[in-house]
Amino acid sequence: MNAVPPPLRWWGWGDRDTPIPSGLAVLLQDEMGIPLGVHVAPAAREAVTLPPSRLADDALIAQLSAICGAEAVGLDGQSRLVHAAGRSYLDLLRLRSGDIGVAPDGVIWPSSEQQIAAVLRACAAADCAVVPFGGGTSVVGGVTPSRGSHRAVISLDLRRLDRWLAVHPVSRVAVLQAGMTGTQAEAALTHHGLTLGHFPQSCEYATIGGFAATRSAGQASSGYGRFDDLVLGLRMVSPAGEIVVAAHPASAAGPSIRELVLGSEGRLGVITEVTVKVRPWPQQESYEAWSFAHFTEGIHALRAMTQGGVAPDVARLSDHQETRVGMAMASRGGAAETLGRRYLRARGHQEGCLLIAGWDSDALLGGARQAEARAIIRRHRGIALGASPGQSWLRQRFHGPYLRDALLDAGVLVETVETATSWANLARLHDAVASALDEALRDGHTPLVGCHVSHVYPSGASLYFTVLARSGNDPRARWLRAKEAACNAILDNDGTITHHHAVGTDHLPYLEREIGIGGVAALRAVAAQLDPTGIMNPGKLIPDAPAAVASGRRPSRPRAQPGLPGASAARGRPRR
Amino acid sequence: MNAVPPPLRWWGWGDRDTPIPSGLAVLLQDEMGIPLGVHVAPAAREAVTLPPSRLADDALIAQLSAICGAEAVGLDGQSRLVHAAGRSYLDLLRLRSGDIGVAPDGVIWPSSEQQIAAVLRACAAADCAVVPFGGGTSVVGGVTPSRGSHRAVISLDLRRLDRWLAVHPVSRVAVLQAGMTGTQAEAALTHHGLTLGHFPQSCEYATIGGFAATRSAGQASSGYGRFDDLVLGLRMVSPAGEIVVAAHPASAAGPSIRELVLGSEGRLGVITEVTVKVRPWPQQESYEAWSFAHFTEGIHALRAMTQGGVAPDVARLSDHQETRVGMAMASRGGAAETLGRRYLRARGHQEGCLLIAGWDSDALLGGARQAEARAIIRRHRGIALGASPGQSWLRQRFHGPYLRDALLDAGVLVETVETATSWANLARLHDAVASALDEALRDGHTPLVGCHVSHVYPSGASLYFTVLARSGNDPRARWLRAKEAACNAILDNDGTITHHHAVGTDHLPYLEREIGIGGVAALRAVAAQLDPTGIMNPGKLIPDAPAAVASGRRPSRPRAQPGLPGASAARGRPRR
Fold first, then answer.
1. Which residue on chain B is closest to A260 by alpha carbon?
2. What interface predicted TM-score (ipTM) does this complex get?
3. Are B259 and B225 in the same domain?
4. Chain B 484-513, CB below 8 Å of chain A: which residues?
5. Are A496 and B247 an interchain contact pair (Cβ–Cβ within 8 Å)?
6. How confident is the model at residue B574 (pLDDT cuts 50, 70, 90)?
7. Do the Cβ atoms of A243 and B421 come within 8 Å?
8. pTM for the complete prediction?
9. Does residue B28 sit within a domain?
């Protein structure tokens, strides 16, 4: 990772083209009839059309300039364009078309908490909505500039809050400003021999505040924890005042205000500062790969390792389809690779499931933990594939979003869906969601729907699906149908509507099925208290009353716990 | 533990007298002038006076009887008496005096969630406050029956919701009704070879719902986690409807509704059902004791073990004073004991600090973990005292509240105070709180203020103080002064106002200093949404607007993180 990656290009990811690996291109052609060599370029920058700004010549602009300085306010096309969308498939389609449709009426770059408070006061008085903007990497519509019922909307970019404020090695705590990117935070901590250990695929661009606001989960979450587990304290500026959560190691002082700010997605205020747990930089890292004949054997092995307290820090188990796509991408056709495949086939793993296991966080018991984990994997008939696939994964760990641009250039529909459920329910949920996506996207050709388990917990794990399909005549409508089918499959099969992508606009119609009418009402009450005029990120996270429900279904009451096959029947039913 | 312990006697704990160990009695006499053999008995049951019930002949009683059955409604003196108080020192003083002062106007024992919902509707319509009542073991006034601004108040006893509903061994999850006691839950889980591993001193009487509502922490929390860590899902009935939190292993679907219900102390509704993580019953248990010359050496050892991932499941480090009291209590004056003391004295531990380390939860790496932990303890000059003090602690682990009755009989003031802070701040906070208690209770004699660290986290730990002092002429006023001094010392020195005792009435005046004006306002908004007429447990947890502040101080803004000595200075201050 570079300490400061180049800015995201306005229509995609990073600053460079990444070719589609030849093996994957062949697979796309052979199985889905996607022709090789097609290149559908995004619109030229000159051809991009933005809606006019509602704030041109508006008194609010002078006020914002007085608060933050004239150079910190942008009404120009480029500023508005790079704050016009996140990075979901639908966002990319919109950007690449050149017809941007929705853009903020202006952008502001405050440099302090005090400035942010003043900006929110000015915007509330001027009836202008505010969209907090970190790295702009949301894949659920979280930074789409909606003005809701307000007169206008601005994006509030946090990039100037990019300092670390304190590092406490004894207590293993660091205080970081919200606008630091993941990469910047790691660079700062490395000077102290420390790491946050939070590496989502977006971490070159996504920010500390964004991680907190969306409950991000990194690739090493099995060892380091989700970002919400890493947060001890934080500060948030709301239109009605500030929220300050002290960084106690634990407290019983009522409901958790920290857990109310985590996941708030800009609806309750602007997170300005986060106090996080950190760790010493690992003394050694070791990545290795294994193959299981069946996905369920891999799941059983992951469960045994996790519940036995010896899960790897990075644990990533691909199903058959994802393993096949991954092998196609890695394919170089050499003799060693052919031999390797023959060996696996002879052992019954002709359609194996790849497990990447990474060990990097535990100086004291690392060796013992790894030995126990290997014994468990072998008991579940895992076959060692050595270090090189693991090293290869490590090199490519932030590669996905770069490759996506090339796939869109080639006319491929590419998107991800994620969820989590209990161990007992994991295979059932996997099959249901994969089938739903497959059925929704079948069009004479078969889409490639791969999945991996990447975040493990004592009671269950996440599922992360990647979809590759023909984009068809109306890619947007096609994906919306598939997404709706996947979301309903998730909720009908006791998954959570999102494990780490957050709610944004895309999951908003499903929130009431997830947390119930009472849960939504509680969130609305908090939002009304902290943001009385409703200027904060309207249209995200919390449905307006009455809740909009996807696909005309009536919301069903969430169940107290997932239906878990193999559970003991209750000895006595309660006297209800 | 018995599966079903006998009911709490109305004026104290358990059902039996527990004598004061002779060594402790001598210490109390020698150092505090508390005479041996005094016995101040509680008032006779016949002499107890209760205020008249405001619900005698009230229409609400007929409604409640129609909902739950006539046998489930109690207006009699005994029912009202045993729901009149929790089990703090001040509660015990009030009960023992026989002048009860405050009691519920009635008691109801519903047996289902539906009945609870109907009871809340009836009470809201009749302007009657409702105090959810589990084991009645609150030590912060959490179950004191206050009617607030309402016409009357009833206690809603959850003891009839005492069933387990499901056990899922694969996902290691159990669904328990809120009225089960800790002991009942363990008895049910033992049938499946499982344990919750939650053993607070109150667990013979305290309930699953109470653990959740107060963020309880058990003696094995270092290994098993606090109760809030164990909760995956729950159900709560509020006057405005129900809250249902599905038991996903993790989710990014917005702010955590689970963490809003945890710690809600009956102010938002009645918790009826909790889905918890469980574990296999440990294959082996091992308890051992160590001595450190200095408290700070013990703290450093605990920190190294915790941050290295090898903390014992039970870790309990006593300071000099608590060690001395503990030795007095265990004193039998035999030759072996004398020899042991001589050995410690020769090694410079004449005033040693005792560490109890218990290992019971980790089948896979238990041995390796224990070996690493021992090496760390020895590096911090810990001296092994063998297994017997640990076994002795294990036998006595639920003993404290029983002994307390005997101490009150002897005219001793006995109470506890708890907090938590970062590792770097732990010794400073310890000294500040111990000094505050000592100064407030000094009266020509010196109180015994002991403390132990009992809950450890990567970033910090808890402190648990036990105070023994002369009760004086006005024990209540005397303790209120000491408690206020301790709370101010905690907040002035970056501790949390409560690590696991919750807020109740006793910490309510300090909540705004802990979570800020914004945090309190957010909680008030949620309460107003879920309980529009404010009947739920009035006067607890959330201060009425405007906030009452203890001791005439103005609330100061909480700080974003504790002031941590030894921190690196920020490289660049933010541009504020």
1. B255
2. 0.93
3. yes
4. 494-503, 507, 511
5. no
6. very low
7. no
8. 0.94
9. no
